[in-house]
Design a protein that fits this description.
It contains ten helices and nine strands. It is an alpha/beta fold. The protein has two domains: 148 residues, 3-Layer(aba) Sandwich (Rossmann fold); 85 residues, 3-Layer(aba) Sandwich (Rossmann fold). The chain has a four-stranded parallel sheet with strand order 5-4-3-6. Strands 7-8-9 form a three-stranded parallel sheet, sandwiched between helices.
């Protein structure tokens, strides 16, 4: 890994991967002066990944921009993915399928999180995925994020469809390559503002967002920590997945990777780690 083309910038490496043009980039980097004041410092900024574009936006569109080019090149006519009932990822996959003229089938996991009320399964993202034209398949949660998605794709393939599997959370090596682009944007935006961020703090669950940020930041923000806050109450599993996906992404980009820099923190411990990172 990292044995070829070491003179290439991260931007040049990313340019070798075609996109479908789904995401509106770069997303804004905005200061949070009132929150900074309320917390008594340090200076906080937010990367507005909710502003990526159509389908009400979200960070998964950045990954889908890369992943769905591969789907179209493979001649897929159907996207197959999945998530929990109110999954942002499912909503963005359904919106992308509608934009690209592809069928969309989603494995909707029930039982992973408790429904707060009867309306939980009828509004929000659950409603939007249906409005975007996706076919929903209710399945029980068994802890295997991609098992039901893969089985659904196999069934559709047997029925004559040409499915392309978008993994849970769009978390794959190629998805992480897409998210490395966020690190290049942060580096450029912070450079324009004449500061280097001490840390990039974000939620980490299926792994590719943190994997992409870790690979990207190593190249263009080497003095910035990337801290993933586990949102699944499974920090050990999240750390393993981030390391695996980051290794895949680094291989695709032909870049070195220091797995020791990948840090996943249990959600309840996040505030203490964040304060410690920013005080060093």
């Amino acid at each position: 890994m990292g044995g070829r083309g070491q003179d290439l910038t991260l931007e040049a490496r990313l340019s070798r991967f075609p996109r479908v043009g789904l995401a509106r980039l770069p997303t804004p980097l905005e200061p949070l002066p009132r929150l900074t004041a309320a917390l008594g410092g340090p200076r906080l900024w937010v990367k507005r990944e909710d502003c990526t574009g159509f389908g009400f936006g979200g960070n998964k569109l950045r990954k889908l921009d890369f992943v769905l080019h591969e789907a179209r090149a493979a001649g897929a006519d159907t996207l197959v993915s999945g998530g929990v009932v109110q999954s942002n990822s499912q909503r963005q996959v359904a919106a992308a399928a509608a934009r690209l003229g592809l069928a969309c089938h989603l494995a909707v996991y029930h039982g992973r999180v408790a429904a707060p009320g009867p309306e939980y399964e009828q509004n929000g993202n659950a409603l939007l995925t249906r409005l975007f034209g996706a076919t929903l398949h209710d399945v029980p949660w068994d802890g295997d994020r991609n098992g039901a998605i893969d089985r659904l794709a196999a069934r559709l393939r047997d029925e004559g469809a040409r499915p392309y599997v978008v993994p849970y959370g769009v978390s794959s090596g190629l998805g992480a390559v897409g998210y490395a682009s966020a690190a290049t944007e942060i580096a450029a935006q912070c450079g324009d503002l004449d500061f280097v961020p001490a840390a990039i703090v974000h939620c980490s669950g299926s792994g590719a967002t943190q994997a992409g940020l870790a690979v990207g930041a190593a190249a263009c923000l080497p003095d910035t920590q990337v801290l993933g806050i586990d949102i699944d109450a499974e920090p050990a599993r999240v750390r393993r997945d981030v390391r695996r996906i980051a290794t895949e992404a680094a291989n695709l980009l032909d870049m070195p990777l220091d797995l020791g820099r990948i840090e996943v923190i249990a959600g309840h411990a996040a505030i203490f780690a964040y304060r410690a990172a920013l005080s060093t």
